[in-house]
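Handout, page 2. Input:
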Amino acid sequence: MRKSVVALCLLLVVQLFAVENIGEMAKKRKTMPQHMVHWMKYEDALAKAKEGPKLIFVDMYADWCVPCRVMDQSVYTDPTVASLLNNRFYPVKLDAESQDSIVCDGKKNTVQRCYFDVWELEALPAFELLAPKGMSILTVTQSMTPQEMQYLLYEFLEKEKEWIAR
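Output:
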């Protein structure tokens, strides 16, 4: 009986320490910087681009797209990629299968019709680069590593002045 009481007390002490550790870990997680892209709505990006011209980076995805999820977890959480997209572009994330209406290349369509008919995309993940006036500049359809995305974004920024004038 005495061994059972000691074992029960020991178990309670272990559980108390475990609860305290979980609480401490949660506090640390909240204070740790989260390197994430601050995605905005498509319409908001177009409106902001009229006020402060920047290129609009549109990430096209679908719920069933595994490479899209991998990029969300590894590429868009990369501190350099997130910083570049947040500070030098207007980043937008659009579901390629969405029936929401948007204006793409001056035409009102569903996101799905913009994906297929206007931007002529056929694969995911896909990235559409838009001028501040909403006109398409460039399309990329491939999965990337954080380093490849950084390189691509820097390449975009080299042509930024020329493309913003469009």
